[in-house]
Amino acid sequence: MASVELGAAWNNLGRNVVFADARCRPIAVFDESVFDDDEPSQYDLDVHAVLDLPGTGTVLTLNHYGMLRGFDITGTPPGRDGVRKAQPAWTLTFVAEFERAVGRLGINDILARICTDFGLDANFTRPRPLRARPRPGLEESVVLVTDSDGAFKHWSAEHWSSLASEVRAWGLDARVVTRSRPAVALGGDGIAAVCAPTPGDAVDVLTACRAVVGLDTGLTHIAAQQGTPTVTISRASSVYFRPWPHTRVVTGTACDDACVAAEAAYAYNDHVSLRGFTPRPRACPADGVCLAGIEPATVAAALQDLV
Known about the structure:
Distance between the termini: 38 Å
CATH topology of the largest domain: Rossmann fold
CATH architecture of the largest domain: 3-Layer(aba) Sandwich
Strand order of the largest sheet: 14-15-13-12-16-17-18
Low-confidence stretches: 11-15, 32-45
Strand content: 25-35%
Mean pLDDT: 77
Number of strands: 18
Shape: globular
CATH class of the largest domain: Alpha Beta
Largest sheet: 7 strands, mixed
Radius of gyration: 19 Å
């Protein structure tokens, strides 16, 4: 069986998606330049998992809606920076019938089955961290990932502030990871920021800190991949949580029916060709109330179990 290399993807950076190998070295980029003039210039891939298939010139991605997509990274020559342009080649979709047939699977289970189907020997029982240069001075800091790509994942500023106060009571520091802002005020309690303007900076920060608490979003997944003690605040469906010894998940209540319907209507899994397709901004008709009932004390207890 061939071995599989686990990589990473950085998305929503200027609407581009950069595929990186396990050492965090860019290997391909998917951007608007791969489209014909009459095709859309923006596409939100919403990547949650990446598999680089060695020797095949193919990168597999799995997104929030269960869309498995194969990207051909051999179709164009490398640019001056050695990075190729990636072209989507095919798409498969996991539908509700699949879940009913096999039960609800976590991301590790899904990827393991995909690798088995492709004859790949992959081990998802422990993470293989991306190469990093841990940023000094964060050894006693708990980094908070408070933002995601929409209001459908929202934990109140007051809750974040309460959690930060609890962390300080343990003798640790609390920091909010940001791209550029010097400070963030949450619930009237200014929490110092740690700036990570580039994907590489984010990996360095999330590797160096004592622990991470974050919404179910990309930076939180990277922290778990790096082996950093990580607590994920997730909606009821926590498919992307990886149940490793250094990770915990706290889930909210079931999503409102209106939210479920809106998400199903938004999903674009039936789009194999991108011609004529432009994604819409995501919104939650219930204002993300599914996370409102998660108490800071519950999250703090999960965190204390790790630190």
